[in-house]
Each structure stands twice: as structure tokens, then as C-alpha cells.
Design goal:
Elements lengths: L1 H31 L5 H22 L4 H14 L1 H31 L8 H25 L2 H16 L19 H26 L12 H17 L16 E2 L3 H4 L2 H6 L2 H17 L13 E2 L9 H5 L5 E5 L8 E5 L9 H5 L16 E2 L5 H13 L7 E6 L3 H9 L5 E6 L7 H9 L5 E7 L9 H9 L16 E6 L8 H11 L25 H18 L6 E2 L5 E10 L8 E2 L2 H6 L8 E2 L7 E7 L2 E8 L10 E10 L1 E10 L9 E9 L4 E7 L4 E5 L4
Parallel strand pairs: 6-7, 6-8, 8-9, 11-19
Antiparallel strand pairs: 1-10, 2-5, 3-4, 11-16, 12-13, 14-15, 14-17, 17-18, 19-20
Bound molecules: protoporphyrin IX containing FE and iron/sulfur cluster (2 copies).
């Protein structure tokens, strides 16, 4: 079941990403296509957040009373710079969530999270747990009505965890109890704590990746910054009114990127929200090890054939090869050593090894590094066998990446004997010497290398390394005697089946000379798939930027979240009260006292545990809330915490609150009854004053 669901999810994801990439390719082109730079764009957006954040910090007052005013000053008085910085700070944070989510879903869809790739996946999950609280604490600090809502809801969530003995939410219910204490803590968490962890987390996340792309191309950086700056001028980020804790706003513009689950805290309960968050995180943590598992053998080094040239180590996309001191006494300085726990069995190292040459006649084909599951020798045999079946004037051999759709689709269409396909792990597994071998031994008249395009290479550098080797720009280079006109490279959608390699085969066949001339040398460009028209480039690119920033801006406040209906008010019960001891005190006898050490002698022996405190809240005679709260503390000897927010109709309402802190069966130890006239949106806090031993109302009544 899991397998089927996973397969369906991944397939859907791949097709969507391929369509998206195709569309964006027409505007941005493959180099600048944002889909290929999602991780790097996330980092870039964090840079914008950092720089704009520093500006905001210079003017920000880290106190309850100063925060709102200082942000208002930046937004309105200094709108041309501070206001823009504030908007950039918000929109870049939102943009980062979009690219981060796409990055994560993309890695999942293209199956780049299993096997030895688990490290990047697993280290990505804590980043989510850092980035989201970073945004949440940011909203808290502004201390407008949204900041109040965020503080209160976050505190309600945290109160469910067994961290604090006292209720944290109580600190945000009325101005009397509000202090700078939490505010300073939030400022520290938002400005120093989380950013430091995030930097460390990102470093760890890309640690195992060879040459991680942490910076997007400059044009993409400039374009994104320009689009976000424009958004900041057109639709500046604003605060949502000063906090008045006696008044609850009817609705708030929520930033759905960071506060998506917040409405659920009230609609469900904190327990369910934590369940959802922990459940999803647990699944993410387990995902790399859930079935289906594919185990492949790691690359193996054959020291007798390794000359220590380090090309494999340079080309390995996952840093799985280290060059070490020679251990076998041969006259080379270094030898390649593969770490099987990092190797993804992609075969790119075989493609880079100069000793992987099929021309050997007298010795077995044993390269310095090889793939046990598809060795260079086995590949040579397959090529020889397949080429024997080729006939006709323009025989073409097509190499494709295993398990993907390009060659599979072609195979199903093949009805001529002039084309054959060979699947290899990744087209970059094929050393350039094999192309020379095929063309100069007249095994075929042309070769098509059909790899996965547009950054979709499962092994990151397959497309790049193959192109550079065939273009003779990276070792091992294709020999000059090979006519590159007989080779077509095509990078197509690997999964969706949208691609059509047959058109590339047909184009290559058409371009081949009537009588193939083996050994013809040319430095002309390699044939590539036809370049699409460019007239749509600019409008498409601008539309993509516009749609992105509209998406960013829209969900940063819309749709609004309704807290109260037009004719509703709110009552919060919030206090701590200690129940009676579970039993009466007993006088110790002289004999019992004598047995005790002198410093522990006391006349009374009182039980430590306390009774729970029971509360009933009635509105016009109807029970709205009823609870029995256990005592806090390890020994159940602390106070019981009572906290509940309730929405009630506005207008004249008869409130009754009864409390039992003893083991009485009937009646109440304390009660309060009064008719109050609630204005729409009015917020009243009911506390129990332990000194006065009575209930008090904060927030006034009319
Ligand atoms: C702050 C958030 C994140 C940032 C800035 C970030 C950035 C990056 C970068 C720059 C790369 C290297 C890309 C390359 O060069 O090919 C990468 C790789 C990766 N990321 Fe993230 N990432 C983040 C969050 C996540 C999350 C939440 C997940 C999934 C749970 C994730 C999963 C991966 C995986 C699996 C790879 C490795 C891809 C491969 O092996 O080809 N990342 N990330
Ligand atoms: S590329 Fe081949 S010869 Fe060079 S170090 Fe790697 S295994 Fe050895
Ligand atoms: S097979 Fe791929 S991951 Fe493994 S060592 Fe070779 S290049 Fe690196």
C-alpha cells in the first residue's frame, strides 16, 4: 500500500516538475531555470532576509512598549528604505518557504533521498524546524494584533508540552501581566539563536555533496531581488493595528507560509496539532529507509589499473572518492579509495577514468574503477552484441539512463534495424573512449546519448560531465579523431514521457553523410536538440517573476483568518490555584518522633499531594466549559493551572463560574455570578485572586 501510494505521489510530482521546468525553460532557459536552483534560491532569500534584518534591527526597540512604534516608524516615516527593507524581509522569508517546499518535494519526487543520500534528507528536516519558528518569532516581535495572536497561540501550543510548570499563555492575556521577559527571549531566539543554528544546519546539510550549488546564477539573483523590491513598493508589508488586550480583532491577515497550522490550534487542539507535526516529521525521518529499497553495489577500485590521476575523485558528485597515499608500492603517488557509505553507484567515476578504454585487445577490460553491477567489460560486450544486430545505411546506437523513459519509449516504437538502444546507469558512465571505439570500429554510424535534462539528472553532474567530455573541455576528453557530427547529445525529460528521442535520432540520421567516413576529424559543434524560438523569452520570464511575487504577497496576508464573528466576544479563564491536600494532617506520637532524625522532626505529618481543582463555567445557565485540572509538580503538590479561551455571543450574558478545590461532593468552594453586557469583540479575562480568595474580571464590562 505504502509502495503504491509512494510511487503514485512520486510519479505525479515528477510529471508536474517536468511540465513546470519545460514552461520555465522557454523563458529562463536551462541555465537560469529556477527549478534547477531551488536549494540555492532558498539560501539566497535568507541572505536578503539577513541584510534587510540588520537594517530593521538598527531601528528596532526590543521592548513591549517600543516594538510596535519602532516598526511603525520604519514602515511609514522611513518608507523609502526602512519600509522597503521590512517588506523585503517579509517577502524574502515567504519566498524562501516556497523554494524550500519545492526543493524538498522535488528531491522526494525524483527519489533523491534514499540509500546513501539519506544524510542530506535527514539533515534537511531540522532545517524546517528552525525556519518556521524563525518566521513565527519574527511576527511575534512586531507586537501588533497579529503578534499578539501569534504569541498567544504559540504559548497555547507550548503549554501542551511538559516544559513549563506554569501556563505560558497566561502572560499574553492582559496588559497587567505582560512583561518584557518573553519579549527579550523572543528577540534573542529570532535575532541570534535560530539564525546561528540555521547557518550550521545548512552547512551540515550540504556537507556530503561535492560542489554543492549554494549560489543561484547572478541573473536569477538580480531578477528575484528586483521582483521582490517591486512588490515591496507596490504592496508594502504593514502592521495590523496596535495591541489592545481588551479587544479581539474580528479577523487577521495570516502569513500562511509560517502560520498554516495556527488556526488548527483552536479548531482542533494543541495535542492534535503536535500530533500532526510530529507525525509528519517522523514519516520524513523514516522515509529514506521505507520500502521499496534498492541496493546497488558501490564502485570498486582496482589498484593494478589505477594510476592515481584523481579524475574520478574530482568528478564524483557525492564526495565518495578520496585520494590516499599509495598502499601497494606501485610507482604512483596516490590511489583512489571509495567510501561505500557515500557511493550512490552512479558510475560517473567510470566515465572519468582514463583507464576505462575498450580498445584493449590482449588484456581484460579492467579499469581503475568499475561498477560491479554493470562493469565496463560487460558494457563493451553489450555494445558489440547489439551493434551486430544493426543493419542499414545509417546505423545508430542510443545510450540512455537506466529505468527512465527516453529509451523505453524509443524501444517500443523501433521497427527498423538501423537503431538500437543500450541502457546504462547514467550516460556519464560511458567513457569517451567508448564513443571512439563505436565509431572507429564501425560498430555504428552515429551515437545518441540521451540523458536526463534540465537539472533532473539523478546524479547531479551527469549532463555537465558528459557534455564537457564530448566537447573536449574536461578530462577524459573525446579524441580529436572522432567526428562529433556523428554524436548527438540530448537532455530530455526523464520521467514524464514528454520527450521524444526518436526525433533526435531522425535528425542525426539525416545529418550523417551518405557514405559514412570513419575517422573524419572535425571540431564543429556537437548536434544538440533544436533551440526553441526566443520571442517568448522575455514575456514568459517576466510573467513567471510576476506570478511568483503575486503568490508570495497574496498568501502573506490572504485569505484572512476569522477569529470572531461580527456579534461575538471572548472570555478567557486564566489562573493557578492549589487544591486542598489529599488528606488531613496527623499528629505524630512521641514514639514516632523519637524514630526520626532530630532535624526532620515535625509535629504534624501532612500528605504532600493535592486534590485536583474542578471548574464549571456556565453561560446563561448552560455549561460552556467544565474541567478537572490535576496539580502540577513531580509530587503532585503544586498548583493546578486553569486556562481556556471561549468565544461567546456579544450582548447581555449571565456568567457563572464555580470552583471546587476540596473533595466536596456538592456545591462549590468558590463561585462568581454576574450579568455582563459584552460589546462585540470585547475580551474579558477571569482570574482567581488567591489573596482575596475570589474571582476578578480584567478587561472591564459595560
Ligand atoms: C533551509 C532549508 C534548505 C536549504 C537552504 C537547502 C539547500 C540545499 C542545497 C543548496 C543543496 C545542494 C543542491 C545541489 O548542489 O545539488 C541541497 C541538497 C539537498 N537537499 Fe536541501 N535545503 C534545505 C532544506 C531541505 C529539506 C527540508 C529537505 C528534505 C527534507 C532537503 C533535502 C535535500 C536533499 C535530499 C538534497 C540532496 C540532493 C542530491 O543528493 O542530489 N533540503 N539542499
Ligand atoms: S580515475 Fe581511474 S586511474 Fe584515476 S584515480 Fe580514479 S580510478 Fe585511478
Ligand atoms: S559510482 Fe558515483 S557515487 Fe560512487 S564513487 Fe563513482 S562517482 Fe562516486
Amino acid at each position: 500500500m505504502h509502495r503504491i501510494l509512494l510511487g503514485a505521489l512520486q510519479k505525479t510530482g515528477r510529471v508536474i516538475f517536468e511540465y513546470l521546468r519545460r514552461v520555465l525553460d522557454r523563458g529562463f532557459g536551462p541555465e537560469l531555470n529556477p527549478m534547477n536552483h531551488l536549494g540555492a534560491l532558498t539560501i539566497y532569500f535568507f541572505w536578503i532576509v539577513t541584510v534587510s534584518g540588520i537594517w530593521l534591527f538598527l531601528f528596532f526597540k526590543t521592548s513591549v512598549s517600543g516594538a510596535y512604534q519602532s516598526v511603525e516608524y520604519l514602515t511609514h516615516q522611513q518608507w523609502y528604505l526602512g519600509g522597503v527593507m521590512r517588506s523585503l524581509h517579509r517577502y524574502a522569508s515567504d519566498g524562501a518557504i516556497i523554494t524550500l517546499a519545492l526543493h524538498m518535494i522535488r528531491e522526494f519526487s525524483f527519489d533523491r533521498y534514499r540509500g546513501n543520500r539519506w544524510f542530506s534528507w535527514i539533515t534537511g528536516i531540522p532545517l524546517l524546524w528552525m525556519v518556521i519558528p524563525l518566521g513565527i518569532t519574527g511576527y511575534w516581535l512586531v507586537w501588533d494584533q497579529l503578534g499578539w495572536y501569534v504569541a498567544l497561540t504559540s504559548a497555547e501550543l507550548l503549554d501542551w508540552l511538559p516544559i513549563f510548570s506554569d501556563s505560558m499563555a497566561r502572560n499574553f492575556l492582559s496588559a497587567d501581566v505582560l512583561s518584557n521577559r518573553f519579549f527579550t527571549l523572543m528577540a534573542f531566539v529570532h535575532l541570534i539563536g535560530l539564525p546561528l543554528f540555521l547557518v550550521f544546519g545548512i552547512w551540515l546539510h550540504v556537507l556530503r555533496i561535492n560542489g554543492p550549488r549554494i549560489n543561484p546564477p547572478r541573473a536569477l539573483m538580480a531578477g528575484s531581488l528586483a521582483a521582490m523590491t517591486l512588490l515591496s513598493f507596490v504592496y508594502p508589508a504593514l502592521s495590523q493595528g496596535e495591541v489592545d488586550m481588551t479587544q479581539v480583532p474580528q479577523s487577521l491577515g495570516l502569513d500562511w507560509y509560517y502560520l498554516l497550522v495556527y488556526p488548527l490550534v483552536k479548531a482542533w487542539s494543541p495535542a492534535w496539532v503536535w500530533g500532526l507535526l510530529f507525525g509528519v516529521s517522523l514519516w520524513l525521518f523514516m522515509a529514506p529507509w521505507l520500502p521499496p529499497q534498492r541496493s546497488k553495489s558501490a564502485a570498486m577500485v582496482d589498484l593494478d589499473n589505477c594510476n592515481g590521476c584523481a579524475r574520478c575523485s574530482d568528478d564524483c558528485p557525492f564526495g565518495a572518492i578520496t585520494m590516499m597515499e599509495r598502499s601497494d608500492g606501485l610507482a604512483y603517488e596516490k590511489e583512489a579509495v571509495v567510501d561505500p557509505s557515500l557511493c550512490l553507484s552512479c558510475g560517473l567515476c567510470v566515465g572519468s577514468c582514463p583507464t576505462a578504454t575498450p580498445f584493449r585487445r590482449h588484456t581484460a577490460l579492467l579499469p581503475g574503477i568499475d561498477m560491479p553491477d554493470l562493469s565496463a567489460a560487460a558494457l563493451r560486450e553489450t555494445i558489440l552484441k547489439v551493434s551486430q544486430g544493426l543493419s542499414g545505411n545509417h546505423r545508430i546506437l542510443v545510450f540512455g539512463c537506466e529505468g527512465q523513459k527516453q529509451t523505453a519509449k524509443l524501444k517500443s516504437r523501433l521497427n527498423d534495424k538501423a537503431t538500437a538502444t543500450v541502457d546504462i546507469i547514467c550516460v556519464a558512465q560511458l567513457p569517451p573512449a567508448f564513443l571512439d571505439f563505436i565509431l572507429n570500429r564501425d560498430l555504428a554510424d552515429g551515437v545518441v546519448l540521451a540523458g536526463c535534462g534540465g537539472g533532473e539528472c539523478l546524479y547531479r553532474f551527469g549532463e555537465l560531465w558528459t557534455s564537457l567530455r564530448v566537447e573536449r573541455q574536461r578530462d577524459p576528453r573525446l579524441r580529436k579523431r572522432v567526428d562529433t557530427q556523428k554524436i548527438a547529445l540530448t537532455w530530455q525529460d526523464p520521467w514524464s514521457g514528454l520527450s521524444d528521442v526518436s526525433s533526435v535520432v531522425a535528425a542525426l540520421r539525416k545529418s550523417l553523410p551518405e557514405t559514412p567516413a570513419a575517422g573524419h576529424v572535425t571540431d564543429e559543434n556537437i548536434s544538440l536538440p533544436p533551440v526553441r524560438g526566443t520571442s517568448w523569452k522575455l514575456p514568459l520570464t517576466l510573467t513567471a517573476y510576476a506570478l511568483f511575487v503575486i503568490f508570495v504577497g497574496w498568501f502573506s496576508v490572504w485569505p484572512r483568518h476569522q477569529l470572531l464573528k461580527q456579534n461575538q466576544a471572548m472570555v478567557s479563564l486564566s489562573f493557578s490555584h492549589a487544591g486542598h491536600r489529599v488528606g488531613d494532617c496527623r499528629k505524630l506520637s512521641q514514639e514516632e518522633l523519637n524514630k526520626l532524625p532530630p532535624n526532620m522532626r515535625k509535629i504534624d505529618d501532612c500528605p504532600r499531594e493535592r486534590l485536583p481543582v474542578r471548574i464549571i463555567f456556565r453561560l446563561n445557565g448552560k455549561i460552556l466549559y467544565e474541567v478537572s485540572r490535576p496539580p502540577t509538580g513531580l509530587w503532585s503538590d503544586g498548583e493546578s493551572n486553569i486556562y481556556q479561551r471561549m468565544v461567546i455571543p456579544a450582548g447581555k450574558q449571565k456568567l457563572f463560574i464555580g470552583m471546587i478545590d476540596s473533595n466536596r461532593e456538592q456545591g462549590f468552594d468558590y463561585s462568581f455570578e454576574q450579568e455582563l453586557d459584552f460589546l462585540p469583540g470585547q475580551h474579558i479575562v477571569v482570574e482567581f485572586n488567591n489573596t482575596l480568595q475570589s474571582f476578578v474580571l480584567i478587561g472591564g464590562s459595560s
